[in-house]
Amino acid sequence: MAQIFSEATDHLLSEFNRVRKNSLKLFKPLRIEDAVMQSNPFGSPPNWHLAHVTWFYQKVLEKHHKKLSDSKNVNLDYLNSYYQQFRKILPKGERGRYPRPTVEDTLGYRAYVEKEVISFLKEEQGLTEELIYDIQLANQHEMQHQELMIYDLQHYFNRFSQPDDNYNPTTFRSTRAFHREKQMQAPGEMVAIGEGIYELGFNGNGFCYDNELPEHKIYLQSYKIDINPVTNGEYLKFIEDKGYEEFSYWLADGWDLVQEQKWNAPLYWIYDDKQDKWMKKDFRGLREINPNEPVTNVSYYEADAYSRWLGKRIPSEAEWEKAASWNEDEQKKNPYPWGDGIPTTKHANLLESYIWGPSDVGSFPDGRSHYGCYHMIGDVWEWTSSEYTLYPGFRPKFSEYTDKWAINQKVLRGGCFATPVHQIRNSYRNYFKPHERILFSGFRCAIDL
């Protein structure tokens, strides 16, 4: 039994150290001035992200009766949570107005709490299931904020017209290294998936969020689904056909936004009149739109309008999950499209690929699902038509983490190029409001049979 506890402790500590180092790796290229800025009320300063995820570990330690005390230059009372139960909340839209704690304070706070977490885990004689889950949740929470910080960095640096005034990651790889075995398909190619009962949700071993549970049966009619996400080139045809000017394609709220915000293309797209080209500044610099990449930074409204224009629709999350998970031959679900193995750079374009943008469709043939669908993990989050509601029989494992947000949001699946490898699986349920475009969101289409 002692050996089992030791192995569990070693695993938690290894994951904890890896996650914490990765956050600082993302933070390292920033200048102090950039680390405390907030470019939009929906985002947060990078310095806030570092402090907030550390605060979460502090709350876990306090929950499990670890006594903490203020030490030199560490203020444990700086509460900046999302969670109403902890009271003192800095309003989200005002985080950039108060660059406190300073970056130096935050780094000191992180170091202090890290030391306390490590000593607590090493000293704890018996790790309860609840403690293990809470530490895992804190690790997963930090990985989520790594991705959120990347969203914020893209939005912040996109405001500067100079291409070189940009976020320069410490690790960068060319997409060429991943395109050697690229397999091209005809635009809009689809695969048929038969009707029947499907069990939706997580059914594996290891960590999952409480909103992925319980696994439950639903009935799906026969349908077809795109084998690839919709590309920039395909979406450009919608733009050229004046899709942003025809109200009949749009849901009412979406059409109001198009008129109010004057949307005429995905977020970050800019039309260069001199070159007669659509351009985009992203982490890879100022570039002409690549027609072979999945379209990204589109809202649910835009995805839905495109689908209507094409005579198709957005798949439900159950349809998406079955296309990603179900192995018809073996009559079982897989945690990843390709099987049981954790994602590698052969399977998917995730954060650890360090491409810093979507890859061409047809890349990563080793990542295909049983039905032949590409890019279901990585590259772009995919909108589904499903409202974010909690599964029948849901029981929260951590109050206010997933349960309070189950209203007026759409489910997205699959992760993106900024999602950490250890964060994603087929059953993972992301959720955003249908108008939001800051996340690296794309989509694929479906039709009824």
For the structure shown, list the relevant keywords:
about 450 residues, alpha+beta, paralog of FGE (formylglycine-generating enzyme), 2 domains, four-stranded mixed β-sheet, three-stranded antiparallel β-sheet, 9 helices, about 10% strand, globular
Strand content: 5-15%
Query: What coarse outline follows from CA principal-axis ratios?
Result: globular
Strand count, sense and barrel status of the largest sheet are: 4 strands, mixed
Distance between the termini: 54 Å
- The largest sheet has its strands arranged as 12-11-10-13
Tell me what you see in this structure.
By secondary structure, the chain is α+β, with helices and mostly antiparallel strands. It has helices spanning 2-27, 32-35, 46-63, 103-123, 129-157, 232-240, 252-261, 300-309, 317-325; strands at 190-193, 196-200, 216-220, 223-226, 269-272, 277-282, 285-288, 326-327, 332-333, 381-387, 410-413, 430-432, 441-442, 446-448. The strands form five sheets. It has a four-stranded mixed beta sheet. The chain has a three-stranded antiparallel beta sheet with strand order 1-4-14, covered by helices on one side. The protein has a three-stranded antiparallel beta sheet with strand order 5-6-7, with no helix packed on it. Helix 3 (46-63) runs parallel beside helix 4. The longest helix is centred in the first third of the chain and has 29 residues, at 129-157. The mean pLDDT is 92.
